[in-house]
Specification:
The complex is a heterodimer of chains A (238) and B (292).
Chain A: E1 13-16, H1 22-30, E2 40-44, E3 61-65, E4 77-83, E5 97-102, E6 118-121, E7 134-140, E8 154-159, E9 175-178, E10 189-192, H2 196-208, E11 219-223
Parallel strand pairs in A: 1-2, 2-3, 3-4, 4-5, 5-6, 6-7, 7-8, 8-9
Antiparallel strand pairs in A: 9-11, 10-11
Chain B: E1 2-9, H1 18-28, E2 36-42, E3 49-55, H2 63-69, E4 74-76, E5 79-85, H3 89-97, E6 103-108, E7 111-117, H4 120-127, E8 136-142, E9 157-160, E10 163-171, H5 174-183, H6 193-206, H7 211-221, E11 224-231, E12 235-240, E13 249-252, E14 256-260, E15 276-278, E16 286-289
Antiparallel strand pairs in B: 1-8, 1-14, 2-7, 2-8, 3-5, 3-6, 4-5, 9-10, 10-11, 11-12, 12-16, 13-14, 13-15
Helix pairs in contact in B: 1-4, 5-6, 6-7
The chains are: A mainly beta (238), B alpha+beta (292).
Chain lengths: 238, 292
Amino acid sequence: MRRALKPAAREPVVFDLATRPLRDINAILQALPAHTNETAWAIANPRGAHAVAVGVTTPVSISIDGHVGYYCAGMNDGAHVTIAGNAGPGVAENMMSGTVHVMGDASQAAGATAHGGLLIIEGNASARCGISMKGVDIVVKGSVGHMSGFMAQSGNLVILGVAGEALGDSLYEANIFVRGGITSLGADCEEKPMTEAASAILETLLKKAGADADPKDFKLFGSARTLYHFHVDNADAY
Amino acid sequence: MCGVVGLFLKNRVLEPELGVLTAGMLTVLTDRGPDSAGFALYSAGLPGHLKFTLRGPKHYDFSALAAAFGVACRLHDDHAVFPVPENQEADFRAALANHPEITIVASGARMELFKGTGLPEDVSRRFGLQTMSGSHAIGHTRMATESAVTTQGAHPFSTGPDQCLVHNGSLSNHNDVRRTLIREHISFETQNDSEVAAGYLSWKLRSGAKLDEALTSALGVLDGFYTFVVGTESGFGVLRDPVACKPAVMAETDDYVAFGSEYRALVDLPGISNAHLFEPEPAKVYFWEHSV
């Protein structure tokens, strides 16, 4: 009999949070060697638990079967985490690399301070999505709440739906692409011309996120750069 | 940090389970508020009677007071619920004025309110929450920031008949609003900021506003961080401040509307896997009401 050239896809190793403490599961995931053969993991019964699959530093896939609480996949560095449900506040906060895919909605501060990787949210994200993002790419297929992109420093925030109040307030140098319209812009955030380079970034991200959207339907917002330096005309205000 | 829960039943079949469901929700949120807890439940009372929830010293004998009014009180640890004929309300209050050791926790046609210090699970067990039934309930687990860890400082706060409020957050203008409300003859038991929010809503309701109107008006007056869940005789409302710092998740099914500071508080509710889950929007009044 001929042997298969490739091994069959491995069945994931399943952890059940109903019977095993989260700390054990996170410790195992965090201790995986860089070239582990156990590349597929699943977590059952999350029941809104906090800090599920945080701090994983190997490029394994982790699928979470249900809704999670605060900081799921925080500090992720290379893993591909899928959440088959909603995520609580701070999903993928401070992610360095890898992907985090939320199949439902995300609560506040999704992708906060994240340096790299890709965060995909199939539903809506609430307030402060991408707050202080530092290089991450975020694609939200629904709408985002107020103060999204607040003090964002670099990276790309793509919003297929509507952006809430004060989008991009005190923005540094991130790109914010919006298809569905804005409620209001925050201080120092302005519409920018959609350059070819920006359009190419957007097209790539839409493709990566599996989003059925035309880059031509988006507007680009960025920093007006008027808050970078103290302006002497404002001296009287202090 | 504090934990807030609420459960408003649309399907009366669930009413016998209201207490056990609420107790479960409170226990889950222990780590958001381990120093005290409390809850208010709404259930039918005797026709023509008001319910008074009273609190006395530990092991206090309420029987003399019950005998004087010819009613049977129901004991729940250091709390007691008295059914008082409506036409004897003034006499009952006058009698209580001679008992400074007794505190009126709440009164109303349908509301009973219990609160105390300790872990939420212990507080629920002390008062027998698991065995209580009713149409809606709100509850709170407290991590104190604005005033001391005392029974008085525990939530819910009630400042009017059948009215109560639980709060996660902190108000910054509560002293100013309290002074205004005292001039309007709203009385306060504590220096707690959340009690001022309850007092403000009571004042608006007393002036003829509906609960949703009172909550809308609170948006323009109360300054600070808040997620409120409030109860009235027939209604249940939710309001978050415009910045929405404090977490909130809601679940709605054909059978109930539920509120939790976190989704964890909702996971054991029946049919939760098919519930419509949503995060209440900032500065938007949410309100459900039974027809009485």
